[in-house]
Amino acid sequence: xxxxxxxxxxxxxxxxxxxxxxxxxxxxxxxxxxxxxxxxxxxxxxxxxxxxxxxxxxxxxxxxxxxxxxxxxxxxxxxxxxxxxxxxxxxxxxxxxxxxxxxxxxxxxxxxxxxxxxxxxxxxxxxxxxxxxxxxxxxxxxxxxxxxxxxxxxxxxxxxxxxxxxxxxxxxxxxxxxxxxxxxxxxxxxxxxxxxxxxxxxxxxxxxxxxxxxxxxxxxxxxxxxxxxxxxxxxxxxxxxxxx
Length: 244
Fold this sequence. Notes:
Blueprint: E1 2-5, E2 8-11, H1 28-32, H2 36-41, H3 64-67, H4 71-75, H5 91-94, H6 98-103, E3 108-109, H7 138-147, H8 151-154, E4 159-160, H9 163-166, E5 176-177, H10 189-192, E6 197-198, E7 209-210, E8 213-214, H11 216-221, E9 235-236
Antiparallel strand pairs: 1-2, 3-5, 4-9, 6-7, 7-8
């Protein structure tokens, strides 16, 4: 599709509405007859912003923009085969979340495109809190969502890593990363974003101090969590310096 803008041309890709063979779009009110609980909380969801009263094409707005045309689903009494369920197939999510789709193709990623997980395992597309399970503060809820699978990393510790209070995504890219363990960075710079180096006239030239300890030699051995030092990166029950 070509648009004329200020005497210059530009190509624009239009996302086509979802299709279900033999079905046509019926509008949100038809969905509300059976899905009253979802319709009641949906206005709090970020996805509710996609609703346009005068959408250019049917299916560009409301429930059917994610679930496809609903006429056959209604006619059949709610048959699952006549509606698109993003909880089983993420393709309808990827139509809008192109950046997330790209991240799932990075070397380290949650196995969504392989079919072992789906977007709704972590996200509630209908609710105001996009992370599951619903309730609680945003970051706390985010960690609860991760804890459903990563119980060993998110359990209570005697000596906790304070970064967990900020949320798992401070260190991990949840959709995908080029780094192992889906880390946002693969070297000590990940830790040094919070554990700032000490600078000043009393620090010898070429040395790296973190707190009162000279870390120059330690950092030459490897990362903070692989050099034999802070191996209990999520928390420890025996050592305040996060060691096993």
